Each structure stands twice: as C-alpha cells, then as structure tokens.
Known about the structure:
Number of strands: 2
Order of helices and strands: EEHH
Mean pLDDT: 81
Structural class: mainly alpha
Shape: elongated
Largest sheet: 2 strands, antiparallel
Number of helices: 2
Distance between the termini: 42 Å
Helix content: 40-55%
Low-confidence stretches: none
Amino acid sequence: MESPAFAEPPLKISGDAARYNHREGNDDYGQPRALFNLFDKDQKARLFSNIAEARYIRITPLVSARRC
C-alpha cells in the first residue's frame, strides 16, 4: 500500500487527473499459471530442470565465497 504522503498531486489536463491503478483486476500469477497449465509433462520437466540449474549456478559462488 502506498503512503498518501508520497502520492503525486493531480495533474491539470482537461480537468483533474489522478493515478491510474493498472493492477486493478490483474494479478502477477494469472498469466504465468495459464501458460504453465498449457505445458505438457516434458515441458514442465524442462522448466523445473532449468529453474533448479539456475538456482545452483547462483548459489555456488556464494557458497564458495563463504568458505574462503
């Protein structure tokens, strides 16, 4: 939730304008969920493998740095 103290004042265009809530009616998970549900078994397996490999690549340098 945004603080009203930091809200931009309305702009004079051809009347008053205020902030548009582009998230209303949208969520951050609906579109990825719909795409995931279209995947077959092999596509899901590749996705999980890619995620697991990406996490390993990012974690490895951190683990190495902590051991030094």
